[in-house]
Amino acid sequence: MTAAAATIAAPVAEVGFNEPVLAQxxxxxxxxxxxxxxxxxxxxxxxxxxxxxxxxxxxxRVGPFGALQPLVDIVKLAAKEDFAPRxxxxxxxxxxxxxxxxxxxxxxxxxxxxxxxxxxxxxxxYGLYGIDVSIGILYAFAFGAIAxxxxxxxxxxxxxxxxxxxxxxxxxxxxxxxxxxxLSLIGVVMMSGSLSLTAIVREQSDxxxxxxxxxxxLIFTIASFAETNRAPFDLVEADAELVAGYQTEYGGMRFAxxxxxxxxxxxxxxxxxxxxxLGGWHGPGPGWLDPFWVLAKMIGFLxxxxxxxxxxxxxxxxxxxxxxxxxxxxxxxxxxxxxxxLVVAL
Amino acid sequence: MSDPRPNRYQxxxxxVEVQRAPEPGVGRSFYRAFRETLRGxxxxxxxxxxxxxxxxxxxxxxPVYPRFxxxxxxxxxxxxxxxxxxxxxxVGCSLCAAACPxxxxxxxxxxxxxxxxxxxxxRYAAVYEINLARCIFCGYCxxxxxxxxxxxxxxxxxxxxxxxxLIFTKDMLLDEPAERTPLRREGx
Lengths: 346, 188
Prior knowledge:
The complex is a heterodimer. By secondary structure, chain A is mainly alpha-helical. Chain A has one domain (2-345). Helices cover 64% and strands 3% of the residues of chain A. Chain A has a two-stranded antiparallel sheet. The longest helix of chain A is centred in the first third of the chain and has 33 residues, at 21-53. Chain B is of the alpha+beta class. Chain B is 23% helix and 13% strand. Chain B has five helices and five strands, in the order αβααββαββα. Chain B has helices at 26-50, 79-82, 95-99, 140-144, 170-174; strands spanning 72-74, 105-111, 123-131, 150-152, 167-168. Chain A binds chain B through residues 49, 51-57, 307-308, 310-312, and chain B through 37, 40-41, 43-45, 47-48, 50-54, 56.
C-alpha cells in the first residue's frame, strides 16, 4: 500500500479537504443560480450588441431598454404546443434536449470562481467552485462528448432530412474541433503540471497563460467557436441552408432547452478560457473581488463571441473540415510539441 | 508578373488584364487571414461606434419631401387666398376620373342650386369617391384638374381593417387631414 503510494510521486491534482455538506449545497445553489442567470443576460446582450454592430437598436420594446425580452421569449416558448413529428422516434426525441441541457449545466460546475478559502464557512475550508475534480479539464471534455449525443440523437430522432443533415454536420464538426480544442489546452496543462482548473489558475498568479500560450489561446478560441456552433462555424444550424439543423423539428420548451444548452456551452467555454488562459480569479483588488474578476473575464470572452458573430461570414462545409484538420490540428500539435520541449528544457 | 508567352489573341485597347497578387506562402496566408479577420472586427466595431440609424417608426416618422404624393385632399376657396370662402373648387367635370390610370375615382356631378351654390361653377360633385385601395398615387388627377381642386397631400399612413374603409368620400377628402407626417424642408 505504502509502496504503491510512493511510486506515484506527485498526484495530478489533490483536493485535500472535504467541504461540509451544507457548504456544498450552498455553493452548488449559488453557482447554479449565477450561471443560469447568465443565460438570459447573454441572450439579450447578444441581440442588443448584434443590433449595434449592424447600426440598429436590437429589441427595445419590452421593459426598460428591452431588458425583459428574454423573459417574454421564454414565456412564449413555454406556451407552445408540445409537438413531435409523426416520423419521430418519440422517446429519443424527448430525451435528446434533456441530455444536451444536463451536460451543459453539469460542465459549468468546474469553473473556479475563487481559490479555496479557510475563513470558516460552517467551520471548514471551502472553495468558490462547484467541484474541483482532479481530472479537471477532462471532466469538461467528457461531458462535452456526451452533450454531442444530445444533438446527434435529436437530429436523428426527428425523422426529418434537415435535422439529420444538421446532426451529421454537427457530428463531423464537433469531433474535429474537440480534438483541436483539447490539444490546445494540453500546453497549459503541461506548463502548470496539473489538470485541475483551480491548480491551473493558482499557477497563473505571476503571469497569465495567455502570454506564453498565445497560439494555444488563439486555437482554443477558434475551436470554441466551432464547439459551441457559433458563427463563423454555425453550419450545424446554418439557418439559410438547413433551416435550423438538428433542432429543425423542435419547438416550444424542447427547442428552448437546446438553445439554453448552446448558451450554457458558450458560458462554459468562456469560463474554461478564463481559467486556463486569462488568469481566472487573479486581478487587482481585495480577495472578495475574485468571483467578479472571473465573471468580468467571462463576459469579455462572451462579447468576443458576439463580436465575431457580427463580423465573419459562415464557412463552407469543406472549408470548415479542411480548416479543422489541416490547419488547427497541426498547429495545436506543433504548439504542444514546442511547449513540451520548452517545459523539459527550461 | 506578365505572361512571358506572346499574346496570341489581340485584345482591344478597352480590355484590361487582370492583375493578380502573387500566390501567398503558408506564413503569408496565415498572416493575411489573421489580418483580414482583424480588419473585419475593426469594421464592425466602427459600426458600433457610429451608433444607430434606426427611426423608431410609430414614435418617430420619416419626414417626407414637399412634393411627396400621399393621400388626396379636396380644396375649398379660402378667404385669404381667393377672396371668397366656403365654395368647393371641384366643379364635377370628371377629368380626374378620366385621367386616373387605376380607375379609382368616381365622380357624379349635379347642378348647383343658384341660390345656395356648393361650388364655384355651374355644377358640383354630388359624389366624389377615391378608392385608396386601388390608387397608385401617380398624381395624374392633380395634373388633370383645371381648378386645382384636388391635390395629393403628405399622409402615407393609410392602413385600415376593411377594404371598404379605404374608399374615401368627399367629406373625408375635404376635411383637413390629421397632420401625421413631418415635412422635410426643401433641399434637406
